[in-house]
Amino acid sequence: YRFPGQFHLTLHHQTAAPLTTLYVLPGALQLLVENVIKHNEVSQAASLPIEVYINDDVLTVANTIQPKAYRHESLGLGLKHLSDFYTLRWNKQLSIRQEQGIFSVTLPLIQSAA
Hints:
Layout: E1 7-13, E2 22-23, H1 28-39, E3 48-54, E4 58-64, H2 77-90, E5 95-99, E6 102-108, E7 110-111
Parallel strand pairs: 1-3
Antiparallel strand pairs: 2-7, 3-4, 4-6, 5-6
């Protein structure tokens, strides 16, 4: 309702495992999408594509960087806390990258035993 037609979310997946057996930390995907909205300019003239990739053992959220004209100070705690939790709980690392105008965060997928 807030940004009609200004975001384009696309899901790509290539995995041998059924998607119903792959998990991320609850709330992690929401945090990553909110992070995209928080740090990027969105307007009627420039929609913001958000790509979600699921591969065999990782989930990646990527977006083109469209910096806001007015940037507020960010403490960077959301991604830090998410990274710390993955390290403590599963001894797995996040990958945070910014290159060639693309920002991406890759989370390890947790596979259920089912």
